[in-house]
């Protein structure tokens, strides 16, 4: 038997037999992994086993562990067994956890921990009523986003002194609430179990909590059932309307889809501003993104209708009936933004003379940490450095055996007297979920620096929009950090990071011949759709209003070619198109700078770029590229290219010349050389 399971069965048996002395002795003398003890404690709390949970919580707290479940068990035990010291210890620690649970975990925490805890309190009349009421408010505060979004007016989050005066009735109702919510959680399709469920009497507030839980758990069918029951009872709510509209689409019920869409815009408009991002990130985006099908344009347009109804700030962007502005060369010049000075990095004083340096580029082997096409990032950096005159070599990292790979990396740096080590910063952050690997990487790189103090370490960051919370924790490892997708991020002003950051373009690496094909007024999109689920809306909506947009979708499947050969074909496709469109908005609605905007420019194609304010630090809209924010703007650009081909060609040539001047392989390495060595 699994030791953890054996431990759990033993403490449950001792607790059931009421052999308190033996239970205490077993807990105090039996060694166990703290993480496993925490899992056991959580399980016991879900079963409302207060006494043994209390003992385990004291053991874990005395060992220095702090978790909401530990705090709750301490508070429960302190209240029920009249131990104010343990109650105060748990309550004080609990204050530090208020509101900090990830939103997607709040419903499960509510159902599995908070509800059984309060039911347990109600079943112990010896507990102090005032202290219990205060504790219930603390527990409710642990799930603020849940209750703000649901708008619950009654229920477990608002246990009143009146309810606490009648514990038996309250416990019975809460137990029933928990039972039906658990039943909803066990079924993911419309089975006969739901027929039984919908025949029962349910309080609207309980149904609303169940609906929200299922939506946040991406279980659409049970949420759809809850929404129909609530709507049939005359209850209007944003979550009800959203579940009706999406459930109606998915289950081919246009009547329910339309019923939800009728209410959705007005209800979304009345959602408090502070909850817009929460609703988008934890309800709308996860569910809508799973329903995309590029082979079904009609379905995508129906999804877009739901999206724009539910998310007010996207309505203007995807308004297909808006009148396109009249974009002329004169108006374009008026729109040119000149307030933001462009970033300019210094070159070495001895330019163009360059010191020979040995460099090692240790970066990911594949695009994703799954079987996929080869990543071209490492080979591009190595080629860029070699163009400059350094001696650079690419060392691919698979991260299948992190300990061995970083040990081999350090050994090569020492053996070959490497001057500059370029590291894949994103991949180091990827190890954050593995404390042992994180410690090993830090120890290996720190030791390497001690053994070779003159070695310069450069961290290359690409997905700052995803990794920004962890960057500061690793910044001390590097002499220089290269990034460029979010130059206005407040993090870059932090004293521990500011002196190491260089806002820089990722090099193309390969030679690109000057463009010779005349501009064609047809836009090409090249890219993936997996992580940027808003892109299909742009592409399909453009087709709907007859804009000339071709697309070449990346699947990240291996193509069998060396990384740079495959990349050269991609660049050639951009150049042949002569006019390329690039989208910036990510799944969290962040607008970031992508590699592709500079790849398009350096290929010699005209860049049509979705609004990206940070790009003003690198390029000038209207001079180096054309910018759009809405579908109407995009239609205006198509008309501009068609009606004013000479002006469009001029912008294309200016963008190409500026990119070659500022962001060539040699210039980019020169900026790095100056930053590292002066």
> In which order are the strands of the major sheet placed?
2-1-3-4-5-6
| Mean pLDDT over the full residue set | 86
The total beta strand count reads: 11
Span between termini:
63 Å
* Low-pLDDT windows of residues: 152-168
Strand content: 5-15%
Largest sheet, if any? 6 strands, parallel
Number of helices: 31
Structural class: alpha/beta
How helix-rich are the residues, as a percent range? Answer: 55-70%
Shape: globular
CA-atom Rg in angstroms: 30 Å
Short recap of the structure:
With 678 residues, the protein is α/β, with parallel strands linked by helices. The protein is built from 31 helices and eleven strands. Strands 2-1-3-4-5-6 form a six-stranded parallel sheet, sandwiched between helices. Strands 9-10-11 form a three-stranded parallel sheet. Strands 7-8 form a two-stranded parallel sheet.
Protein architecture, described:
With 678 residues, the protein is of the alpha/beta class. It is built from 31 helices and 11 strands. The longest helix has 20 residues, at 103-122. The radius of gyration is 30 Å and the shape is globular. 41% of the residues are buried.
Topology, element by element:
Layout: H1 3-16, H2 20-29, H3 34-46, H4 50-62, H5 68-80, H6 84-97, H7 103-122, H8 129-141, H9 144-150, H10 161-164, H11 167-185, H12 192-198, H13 204-216, H14 220-232, H15 238-250, H16 254-269, H17 276-289, H18 297-310, H19 329-335, E1 358-364, H20 377-388, E2 391-397, H21 402-415, E3 420-424, H22 425-430, H23 435-451, E4 456-460, H24 464-471, E5 480-483, H25 495-498, E6 501-503, E7 523-528, H26 535-544, E8 549-554, H27 563-577, E9 579-582, H28 595-603, E10 606-610, E11 626-628, H29 631-643, H30 645-663, H31 665-677
Parallel strand pairs: 1-2, 1-3, 3-4, 4-5, 5-6, 7-8, 9-10, 10-11
Helix pairs in contact: 1-3, 2-4, 3-4, 4-5, 5-6, 5-7, 7-8, 7-11, 11-13, 13-14, 14-15, 15-16, 15-18, 16-18, 18-26, 20-31, 21-23, 28-30, 29-30
